[in-house]
Design brief:
The complex is a heterotrimer of chains A (233), B (225) and C (263).
Chain A (H helix, E strand, L loop, with lengths): L1 H7 L2 H6 L1 H33 L4 H15 L3 H20 L7 H26 L3 H9 L4 H31 L11 H12 L2 H31 L5
Chain B lengths: L1 H9 L2 H35 L4 H13 L2 H10 L1 H4 L6 H26 L3 H10 L3 H32 L10 H12 L2 H34 L6
Helix pairs in contact in B: 2-3, 2-6, 2-8, 2-9, 3-6, 4-6, 6-8, 7-8, 8-10, 9-10
Chain C lengths: L11 E10 L2 E11 L4 E6 L5 H8 L7 E6 L2 E3 L15 H10 E4 L11 H12 L4 H14 L15 H13 L5 E5 L7 H16 L3 E5 L3 H7 L2 E6 L2 E6 L1 H6 L4 H11 L1
Parallel strand pairs in C: 3-8, 3-9, 6-7, 7-8
Antiparallel strand pairs in C: 1-2, 1-4, 4-5, 9-10
Helix pairs in contact in C: 3-4, 3-5, 4-5, 5-6
Classes of the chains: A mainly alpha (233), B mainly alpha (225), C alpha/beta (263).
Chain lengths: 233, 225, 263
Amino acid sequence: MFAVLQGAFDPALFWEYRVTLLIGLLQNLSIFAESAAVAIILAFIVGIARLSPRRALSWTATAYAEFFRNTPEYVLLVWIYFVLPLLLTKLVGMQVKFSPHLAAVIGLGVAYSGFMSETVRAGLRSIPGGQTEAAQSLGLSSLTILRRITLPQAIRRMLPEVINQLVSLFKATTIVSLISVQDIMYQVSMISVAEMRPVPLYTGAALIYCVVIIAATQALQALTQRWRTRGWA
Amino acid sequence: MIENFNRYVLANVEPLLGGLWVTLYVCFWSFLLALILGLVACLIRLRGGFLRYLAIPYIEFCRATPIFVQLLWVNYVWPEIFGFPQTVTGAGIIALALQSSGYLAETFRAGFDGLPKGQREAAAAVGMSRWRVLYRIELPQVALVAMPLVINQLAVIVKSSTLVSVIAISDLMYQGLKIVNQWYEPIEVLTAIALAYFLLIFSISRVANAVYVHFQAKFGIAGYR
Amino acid sequence: MESGLNQIRPIIQVNDLHKSFGTQEVLRGITLAVESGAVVSVIGASGSGKSTFLRCLNYLERPSSGEIIVDGETIGASAAAPGRRAAEPSSRDIARMRSTLGMVFQQFNLWPHMTVLGNVIEAPIQVKRMPRREAEDLGRQFLAKVNLLDKQNEYPAKLSGGQQQRVAIARALAMRPKVMLFDEATSSLDPELTTEVLEVMRDLARDGMTMLVVTHEMGFARDVSDRIVFLHAGRVEEDGCPAQVFNAPLSERCRQFVSSALG
């Protein structure tokens, strides 16, 4: 067993394929950035809609959030990559095809918008109603109240949870190889097969992800801690 | 589309249900294993002396590593180094359990931290052995407070279980993809599978929520979600 | 019919105001007139509907039926033409009516992420589109009036309750309302801190502001008000000058309330 352990960690192998691996990693990072943007924008729309006094709007938004929170990401990715283009083709009449990258961005974006919309909703609700009433009694419009009173405070409160969810999103980008995106996991699989040595690469991948995620989480928490305790908070 | 549904879903109901059974089987066993590993890791972390310095990296590793990476690692690397698991099903169960054991360990830890200190001292003063205290006094309370989150982890396991199809475990996802690859008609099958998973996971979430509400009302525990 | 004398027209006229929350009827037909420049105190036991009444005036609560006329403008269910179903007032009507009424809350409701000056000038900038410089001058003017100019760059969390409430008063005054509504403005303050707020309210009254004050402070009610309204179970039980309400009330319930309140 120890002999095998010796062969388990082989940084040289990583170094040898560093370019391929980095290009793969770039795919993960770009998909992460783009789907994060999609998720955040959708989360605000859905989160605010959930608090609307109009029943139809709030119910639809809640159904959206519940569906995407309770459906596996892999299933969503596959569905968006294979099924959605077919449905759109029937609808639009023109041939619609998604690139794997696009499908991944849409899929992960909507999946995580479900979780984030819950965070947005909780953040908005945490602002005491009296502040809104005072603003209303001074004649401020609903939009102004949202923009000037509620959101500035709510965003600060949402930040820790949103960061947790973004970290989860980054971890989720590891599955995009399953819809043919040539990301780092794809490269790792390819190299493992080529070299016939799965042990060092898969172990290395696990270790690298572990270290990166832990470091990133610590750093982000430290950063937001400083930002949140500045000034009035 | 209805005829397609009949042709591809209903006609294949047997393998699909078989896949569902495998999903449930894998999720059940990994949930159990996760509970055990999580509890042990938590206890070692809290009370294990120098062994804590093994437990903490274990927990951090389980939480920080993406489940897909863990799955491939357990499936391809462990048999070479440790000699087990010998089956893909075993690998799937172990990997899912590892991932959740990290979160559960932290959940239990928060539960233990929330217990009033005086309880342990009072029990010790009465002469209870440390194990008795743990078993009769602390664990029941931690179980109560942690229950909603624990049930939620089951939902997470079911969600992650879709990935085990990649290492050729014949779960629901695997069977569905098999049909799609065979007939190139993905719409009905994949939609049906998505709905199936949604219903399953949504039900588990609802149960977790109901437990939370019920425990709040009955025990007044200021739990957490 | 209109009399020609505008100064006789009350600045607030409430006719048969009803408000129910679900099946619970909280206001059961309140009719009341407030003249310009008058200070009217509204007293009564908890649950008598005092706060609800005040909040109906600026539409923080929607009246179930009845008429509210503020400065000649009718808002409320009967604003529609006779024979047609009552129309909901538009948000523009509500906003216009709210700019005539300033409100001070029991919980102050300052915005914690803005400075004291920021709180005061926010509404003039956003609602009246006042340029920032002008708004800041205006804000400082009103902060000086409540004796808090030196705290203009502090955040509300650093201020005492009494100071926060005075900022809230300045914030309401900055919109130059015709009427100031006080909803139990001193009820959440420690006793030592109520004096500073009551002082400000007395000054306001002396300057001729029309004030509608829901309060438990009987001393203030007796000394500063022109009129006292006693509410019981959603109805006006007593409405007269302080001397009458405190010394010779017509209603037995009012007499009981006043004697137990004054100890």
